[in-house]
UniProtKB/TrEMBL annotation, chain A:
It comes from the Eukaryota. Pfam families: F-box (PF00646). This is F-box domain-containing protein. InterPro entries: F-box-like_dom_sf (IPR036047), F-box_dom (IPR001810). Residues 7-57 form the F-box domain. Coiled coil: none annotated. CDD domains: F-box_SF (cd09917).
From TrEMBL, chain B:
The keyword Protease does not apply. Keywords: Ubl conjugation pathway. Pathway: Protein modification; protein ubiquitination. Belongs to the SKP1 family. This is Skp1-related protein. It comes from Ramazzottius varieornatus.
Length: 346, 191
């Protein structure tokens, strides 16, 4: 039992302070607290509180495990041939959860997506699931201006910011348009960005098991492999914010964050670049020189064609540049390369 | 944690620069550095109204709602943050929320607020009265963290709140919130 001082102080809490305390709470706790008394219920019914919504998925996780993962399990069911009866049982519950918490009044959506990735699910598939879930949230919250994501697995691909330009149902790159959503700021805290797929064409999986890719154009007109074994498949970034009104800055910030927080590429892996450069065809050599000239400060003052690829010290390059060279397979040629939904451009 | 003893009247000789005198509910007078005093928007406002002419004289700003024991604690917080924080422009509500999202409660503040809940609430009310937004926000966050861990019954008991719902109202609320209260069926799970 608290001291009488606490009882006295709480009783006389000004509404503004009570509002500020309640605003700090995740939505599930807010709902729970509406059962305390009619006064608290009234405070929690304040429309101002509905302006921001904080979903701590970990709290829901115990009770809504299967339903939360619905899109993902559909896909896994497709992959493994397993029936997931639990999906049907719980689907309604996840919709209840989201539609009860997010509304047209929601301007700020804060989602703590701290759900443990099952060991047998690869990082890239998990980040894909997270993306599906994020789109779903944005479709419900049509007027969200600020989207705060915590502990999420995120696709670390080039121009990730475009994924948040939501024209109704599908992400912008799917149909090549970028209809503005009300969304203005997307902020990731402790995000795990899948760098393995940074240059890899992004696959979208649908509940029926089919998949597609956005846009259909390879990134930066090149064809890529995944990062070689030995490189960390993801990068943890403490804080990354996209201002969607300033896309070029958003991309720069993403590159800077990846450069700053990606793990070092093992020297043995970097050494493979020396061998790789020896066997590059001429068009690829030109492309690599352009990449160095564009992205590496030490080569900015040099004409791209003057760069000697055989003398490049790979370990001094920015991590994102290292990743580009490590993933690089060929310069894209529409006569030669075609898209395979499971392996990207081959 | 250090004590707030350094803020009492016996230390008026302290550092050079403009000093501001304030008095607490009990009438005890404290002398504050201008920078420290102005972290309170209330004191800042009064000083601006007075044209900052009171710095050199003996006028004392009365803080009639703040008890000495709480003011001593707040002074510790003000002095620490006056020396460590950058001055920030006022933010829009959305930006405030973003800033709170981006920042964890710093370790120093966690230790500072590692006190009885009664004291946190009193600091929070005093910070509200003095309009020290950051301190008030930290207290709110700390109280919210306490609430998260309690059941409805524990909260009622903790704060002496009477359950004033009728049985019908309770049933209605239970129905409305059933979707987030009950355990879902587990059969058929593949994991």
């Amino acid at each position: 039992m608290e001291s009488p001082d606490v009882l006295y102080t709480v009783y006389y809490l000004p509404p503004e302070i009570l509002h500020e305390i309640l605003q700090e709470l995740d939505t599930l706790t807010q709902i729970k607290l509406s059962r305390v008394s009619s006064e608290w219920k009234a405070a929690l019914s304040n429309p101002r509180l509905r302006k921001s919504c904080f979903l701590d998925i970990k709290l829901f996780h115990g009770t809504l495990h299967n339903s939360l993962l619905t899109p993902f399990w559909y896909r896994l069911a497709f992959c493994t041939g397993q029936a997931t009866r639990a999906i049907a049982l719980n689907r309604e519950r996840i919709e209840d959860l989201l539609y009860n918490c997010i509304s047209e009044r929601t301007k700020i959506l804060h989602v703590k997506l701290d759900v443990d990735r099952p060991d047998h699910v690869p990082e890239q598939i998990w980040s894909d699931f997270c993306l599906h879930f994020i789109w779903h949230l944005l479709r419900i919250g049509k007027n969200i201006t600020h989207f705060l994501l915590e502990d999420a697995w995120v696709d670390g691909s080039v121009e990730l910011w475009k994924y948040f330009m939501v024209p109704g149902r599908l992400p912008a790159r799917f149909d090549g348009t970028a209809t503005p959503h009300s969304l203005r700021v997307v902020s990731f805290k402790n995000g795990l960005f899948s760098t393995q797929r940074r240059f890899f064409p992004t696959l979208v999986w649908f509940p029926n098991g089919r998949c597609a890719t956005y846009g259909g154009k390879p990134v930066n007109d090149c064809v890529y492999d995944k990062l070689p074994d030995g490189c960390s498949p993801y990068t943890k970034i403490p804080l990354l914010t996209f201002d969607l009104r300033n896309p070029s800055q958003a991309e720069q910030d993403m590159v800077l964050s990846l450069d700053c927080h990606s793990e070092e590429v093992p020297p043995g892996v970097l050494q493979t670049l020396t061998d790789k450069v020896r066997n590059l065809p001429e068009d690829a050599r030109t492309r690599w020189k352009a990449e160095l000239h564009l992205n590496e400060p030490q080569y900015r003052g040099v004409e791209a064609k003057e760069i000697d690829l055989n003398s490049v010290n790979w370990s001094t390059l920015r991590k994102t540049t290292q990743h580009f060279f490590l993933c690089f397979k060929a310069v894209y040629d529409p006569q030669v390369h075609h898209y395979d939904p499971f392996h990207g451009y081959v | 944690m250090s004590t707030a003893a350094s803020s009492s009247t016996s230390e008026t000789i302290a550092e050079p620069g403009l000093k501001i005198k304030v008095s607490t509910k009990e009438g005890e007078v404290f002398e504050l550095d201008e920078k420290v005093a102005k972290m309170s928007q209330v004191i800042r406002g009064i000083l601006e109204d007075l044209g900052e002419q009171n710095g050199g004289d003996d006028s004392v700003l009365p803080l009639t709602q703040v008890e000495t024991r709480i003011f001593r604690k707040i002074l510790v917080w003000l002095k620490y943050h006056a020396g460590h924080d950058k001055e920030e422009a006022p933010k829009a509500e959305e930006d405030e929320i973003i800033a709170r999202f981006c920042e964890e409660i710093p370790e120093w503040d966690q230790k500072f607020l590692n006190v009885d809940q009664a004291v946190i609430l009193e600091i929070m009310l005093a910070a509200d009265y003095l309009d020290i937004k950051k301190l008030r926000g930290l207290c709110c966050k700390t109280v919210a963290n306490i609430l998260k861990t309690k059941t409805v019954e524990q909260i009622r008991e903790m704060y002496g709140i009477e359950n004033d719902f009728t049985p019908e109202e309770e049933e209605e609320i239970r129905k409305q919130t059933a979707w987030c209260e009950d355990e879902p069926p587990r059969q058929g799970s593949n994991h």
